[in-house]
Structure formats: structure tokens, C-alpha cells
Write a sequence for this structure.
């Protein structure tokens, strides 16, 4: 079976029509569904948060059968993810897409669990520590996109579970948990 | 309908009269009443189409769902009354009368029949044509040539000797003899010249002989191919078949023309086309390009060609009649003639078996591949493929290599587990073919 780095590709990745946006409604719906699953699966395992449409994305072309997705097709598939709430456009021109294999709320729950498991209920951490610190190593939070993380933290702040405070520069924002 | 006064005329599936051998249509009139003023028991026929042929006067009732028809053989007509001119006739619908002895050999007696033309028709030209057809006695020609044909079929090679045997030959002696011989040659030449250029009627008669000849050849070929199919070699059979087809495709004996049909032109043309299209449609598998039928139809009509516009109008009239064919326009704008019994299902079955062969699974099919497999024109094949795609049977692949179609595997994949390949079905077959090819 074909692989993309560590990622195992499904069989239909070698099916040429998979790379042509199908005009027939029913067929296209199924095609979009399969692409959504594949994109989410790939991004989760590869920890990819942002897909830029104008930059080569490994999933969007298959050298083995010499096929690649058109810009229109890429946008269609990502738009489908956006309308499912599993992705967000980062700009109005739809050039960059933020993929949320966990919804923001789910990320927030993950943070709460992480805090509880590590006994950090009343401690202070920097945002950068959550993303790449020793404590988060081996969890899903490790290597999380900063934008996603900040939005999850904001959700928790609203609920009064933590307080975000600014440091001297943008890099060292801190978090005071109060779970 | 007509009691036992008048015999029923046979009609084709689309409501056109079935003509006898050698019979040609002369004129058509719509909304005509046919009755007898003096014989009350004679049927009173209202608002039908009257078709005058060289052999018969046919009256067709078209308003009912299944058209019915009766006819009066022109041979039964004993007198045609000339048109009355009076002040009264200026205002009433034009009418004219003729006398005919009806029934088997005139057993019903002589009846004066009146035709009333309710539509806007030129009665004078109709009566003129009626007169002409009656006077020509074309039905007798038909019988005669029929006898001739059967006669010469039995004893061939004796036809030419008759004239020479009867003429008394003068001896060629002296100057007078030479002169007479010269005179004879000159007279003969003159006679044949006159014969050849006499008038168009003579030419028409010759044409009729040619048609008879062609028909006889066809009959001979048909009987030949059945009786000695085993004895002859393939090449001979091939030429025979070709010849047969050639003869079959020249042959609308009585084409509907603007001249003969007048206002009914498109309607009648439409019916004739419906009858004509049956055979080519069968051969093409139930669907045929409009352009192809245009060529075939005009070829069969010989010199009475129709314009593409007339064809289109004739086709679009089919909706109104109960005919076994229909005009179909594909999404792409391609127009085809399709028999109503033709089903897309059958075509889809063939397409499905075509795209599930190992080669097609791997590389897909193009419209020209499909055209070759299905034995139809590439444009038609593409329409079929697009229709199959619309039904979810196929998926398209557009790439720099071209436009190809694959069997639809997307529907076979389980969206909840995209890595799952079931142990059965076309997806599994495809996976196997792909991994074998590597």
C-alpha cells in the first residue's frame, strides 16, 4: 500500500477520478465526504493545522498516477470541512485554511484534562510551555497550533477556569489555571 | 365505419396509407366530408383527410385515437361531374361529385358521391388531378407489368424477337433498294429519337420500368441468398448483401412533397418519416443521430429532397401523433431519434460490462473506445457515457491525458472507514487489478 511519509494512504488514492471534481451531485457528495475524511485523518496524524491552497500540499497530488487537484477542487473540499465546523478559513480570500480535527471546545476539554492529570490546577504556565513543554510531551497538545490553542484558552477564560495575562512580549503570554 | 359500402384501407403504424406497388400519391386535402346526396344509406363521413393516389381515393379519419381509413378504387369511378359555377357556390364550401359503381364488381350499384372541402383548398386543381389520375388508369399498368414480370421470369430471352419476326422484309435490290434501306435507317433513328424525347411521361414510364427492375433484382437476391446460402462463397454473399442494402435504401416510392400535400405537408412528412426511421433505427440499436437520418431519408427520397428545417419540424410534430419514435435532445444539444421501446437500461448494462474489464478498470475508457465497443458514433457514445455518469454509474477523470470514464468506485468505499476494502465487489477487484499492474 502506498504511503505518504508515515501516513498510510487508502487504496482509492490511486483512483484517477478521485482527483477530478465530479459534476454529478450524488457522486460529488460521496467524493467530498471521502476527501474530508482523508484530510482530517492526515492532518491529525501529521499534526498539520494549516493548509495553504497555493502551496503544494502532499495530499493534493499523486505522482504515481500523475494526478493533482485543481484549485477549485481544493477549495470545494476545504469549504465542505468549513461548513462541517471542522475547519475555518483564515482569510477572506480563502487562501489559508485552519483544520480543526478537534473542535475548539474539544481542545478546551483536552486542556482541562491535561491540567488535572498533571496536577497543575492552581499553577501558572506560559502558552509556549503548553505547546512545547516537558509536561505536554506525548499528549495531543504537544505542537498544537498557537491560534488554536489561544482560542481554546479564551473559551476556558470565559468559563472562569483560567486567566490569561500578558507578559512583556507577545511570545510570553501566561496562563493562571483555576480549575 | 363505412358499413359494407367501402373497403377499409390499410394504414401504417403512424397513420399513413399503405400504398400498393406502383401507387403514387397525387394530392392531399384536409377536413373533407364524404357522403352521398341521393343514397341515404351511404355512410356520412365527416372531416377527414382525403388522399388521392394514382390508384385510389383514400379517406382517413385522423381525429380518433387510432386512425381508420376507407378507399374508393379509381377503377370503380364511372363518371366525374364537372364543377358547377353558380352564385351559390361562391359562398358555400366548395364541393364536387363523381359517380362510382361500388361493391365487388359493382354489386352495390352506382352511387353518386359528393366531397365537400371544408378547409382552404384549391378545388379546381384537385379535380384536375383527380381527372388526370382517373384517365391515366395507372392501376391497369400495375396489373400488366405484374403479369409481364411473372411471364418474363419464366421464359427469358424471347422478348426481342417479336418485332423482327412479324415485319415483312423487302428484298434489297438495285438503287431503289439502297434508297429504301437508307430511308428505313433514317426512319428508325427518327423514331427512336422521338420515343426518347417524346415527353416527360415517357421518361416517367421508363423510370417505372427501372423501379420494377430494381425490385425484381432485390427479390431475386433475397430468394438466392436463402436457397443457396451454403453453396456460395463469402465474397459473393458480401456483394449480394451490399447490393441488397443499396436497393433497399433507394426506395420511397411516393415521397410526401409540398406540391402533393400542401398545408398538410409537415404533418404527412412527419408520419412518413416515422415509418421510414423504423428500419435504420433497428439497425443502429434504437438510437440514431438526426444528421444520419437526414442523409438516409433524403437518399431514399431520391430527387424530392427536404431541408433540415423541414426535417426538424417533422420530428417535432411526433409528440402530437401516436408514433413509435421520438426526438430526443441531450443536455449537450445533440439531437437524436430514438424508438420509444429503446431503453437506456440496456445501454447502461453494456457500458457497465465494458468498464469493468481489467483494462478499463486500470485506465478507464474514452468516448471513442465506447464507440467501438458499442458500435455507434463517437458523439453518441459520449452522450451515453455522460448519461451513465449522471446515473452514478461512472466517474470522470479529466487530466492532461484527456477525458476518460471509470466505473464509479467512490460509492463502494465506506466513508466511516476509508481504509476498508470489502472482500467482494468491484472495489476489491479494482484493488487487485491495480496491485497486479504494478
Amino acid at each position: 500500500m502506498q504511503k505518504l511519509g508515515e501516513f498510510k494512504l487508502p487504496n482509492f488514492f490511486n483512483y484517477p477520478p478521485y482527483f477530478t471534481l465530479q459534476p454529478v451531485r450524488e457522486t460529488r457528495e460521496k467524493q467530498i465526504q471521502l476527501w474530508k475524511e482523508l484530510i482530517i485523518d492526515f492532518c491529525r496524524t501529521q499534526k498539520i493545522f494549516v493548509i495553504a491552497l497555493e502551496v503544494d500540499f502532499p495530499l493534493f497530488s499523486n505522482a504515481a498516477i500523475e494526478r493533482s487537484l485543481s484549485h477549485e477542487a481544493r477549495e470545494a473540499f476545504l469549504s465542505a470541512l468549513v461548513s462541517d465546523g471542522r475547519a475555518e478559513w483564515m482569510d477572506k480570500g480563502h487562501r489559508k485554511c485552519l483544520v480543526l480535527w478537534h473542535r475548539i471546545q474539544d481542545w478546551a476539554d483536552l486542556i482541562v484534562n491535561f491540567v488535572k492529570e498533571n496536577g497543575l490546577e492552581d499553577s501558572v504556565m506560559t502558552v509556549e510551555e503548553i505547546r512545547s513543554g516537558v509536561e505536554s510531551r506525548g499528549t495531543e497538545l504537544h505542537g498544537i497550533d498557537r491560534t488554536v490553542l489561544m482560542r481554546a484558552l479564551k473559551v476556558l477564560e470565559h468559563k472562569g477556569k483560567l486567566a490569561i495575562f500578558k507578559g512583556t512580549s507577545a511570545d510570553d503570554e501566561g496562563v493562571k489555571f483555576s480549575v | 365505419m363505412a358499413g359494407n359500402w367501402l373497403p377499409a384501407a390499410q394504414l401504417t403504424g403512424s397513420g399513413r396509407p399503405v400504398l400498393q406497388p406502383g401507387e403514387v400519391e397525387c394530392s392531399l386535402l384536409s377536413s373533407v366530408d364524404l357522403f352521398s346526396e341521393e343514397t341515404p344509406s351511404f355512410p356520412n363521413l365527416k372531416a377527414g383527410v382525403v388522399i388521392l393516389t394514382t390508384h385510389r381515393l383514400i379517406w382517413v379519419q385522423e381525429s380518433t385515437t387510432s386512425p381508420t381509413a376507407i378507399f374508393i378504387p379509381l377503377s370503380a369511378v364511372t363518371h366525374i361531374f364537372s364543377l358547377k359555377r353558380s352564385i351559390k357556390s361562391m359562398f358555400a364550401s366548395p364541393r364536387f361529385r363523381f359517380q362510382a359503381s361500388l361493391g365487388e364488381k359493382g354489386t352495390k350499384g352506382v352511387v353518386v358521391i359528393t366531397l365537400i372541402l371544408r378547409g382552404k383548398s384549391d378545388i379546381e386543381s384537385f379535380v384536375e388531378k383527380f381527372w388526370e389520375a382517373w384517365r391515366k388508369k395507372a392501376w391497369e399498368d400495375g396489373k400488366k407489368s405484374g403479369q409481364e414480370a411473372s411471364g418474363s421470369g419464366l421464359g427469358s430471352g424471347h422478348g426481342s424477337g417479336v418485332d423482327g419476326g412479324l415485319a415483312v422484309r423487302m428484298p434489297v435490290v438495285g438503287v431503289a433498294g439502297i434508297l429504301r434501306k437508307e430511308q428505313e435507317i433514317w426512319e428508325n433513328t427518327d423514331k427512336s429519337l422521338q420515343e426518347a424525347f417524346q415527353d416527360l411521361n415517357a421518361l416517367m414510364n421508363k423510370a417505372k420500368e427501372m423501379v420494377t427492375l430494381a425490385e425484381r433484382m432485390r427479390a431475386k437476391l433475397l430468394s438466392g441468398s436463402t436457397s443457396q446460402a451454403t453453396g456460395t462463397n463469402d465474397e459473393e454473399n458480401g456483394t449480394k448483401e451490399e447490393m441488397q442494402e443499396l436497393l433497399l435504401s433507394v426506395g420511397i416510392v411516393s415521397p410526401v412533397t409540398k406540391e402533393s400535400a400542401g398545408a398538410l405537408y409537415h404533418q404527412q412528412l412527419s408520419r412518413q418519416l416515422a415509418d421510414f426511421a423504423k428500419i435504420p433505427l433497428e439497425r443502429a440499436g434504437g438510437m440514431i443521430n438526426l444528421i444520419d437520418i437526414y442523409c438516409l431519408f433524403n437518399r431514399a427520397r431520391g430527387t424530392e429532397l427536404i431541408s433540415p428545417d423541414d426535417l426538424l419540424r417533422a420530428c417535432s410534430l411526433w409528440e402530437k401523433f401516436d408514433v413509435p419514435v421520438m426526438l430526443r435532445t441531450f443536455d449537450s444539444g445533440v439531437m437524436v431519434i430514438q424508438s420509444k421501446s429503446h431503453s437506456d437500461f440496456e445501454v447502461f448494462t453494456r457500458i457497465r460490462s465494458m468498464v469493468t474489464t481489467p483494462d478499463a478498470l486500470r485506465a478507464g475508457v474514452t468516448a471513442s473506445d465506447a464507440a467501438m465497443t458499442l458500435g455507434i458514433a463517437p458523439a453518441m457514445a459520449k452522450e451515453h457515457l455522460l448519461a451513465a455518469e449522471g446515473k452514478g454509474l461512472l466517474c470522470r477523470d479529466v487530466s492532461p491525458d484527456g477525458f476518460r470514464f471509470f466505473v464509479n468506485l467512490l460509492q463502494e468505499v465506506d466513508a466511516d472507514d476509508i481504509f476498508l476494502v470489502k472482500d467482494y465487489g468491484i472495489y476489491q477487484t479494482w484493488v487487485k487489478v491495480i496491485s497486479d499492474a504494478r
Observations:
- Residues 8 and 70 of chain B are 4 Å apart (CA to CA).
- The longest strand of chain B covers residues 25-35.
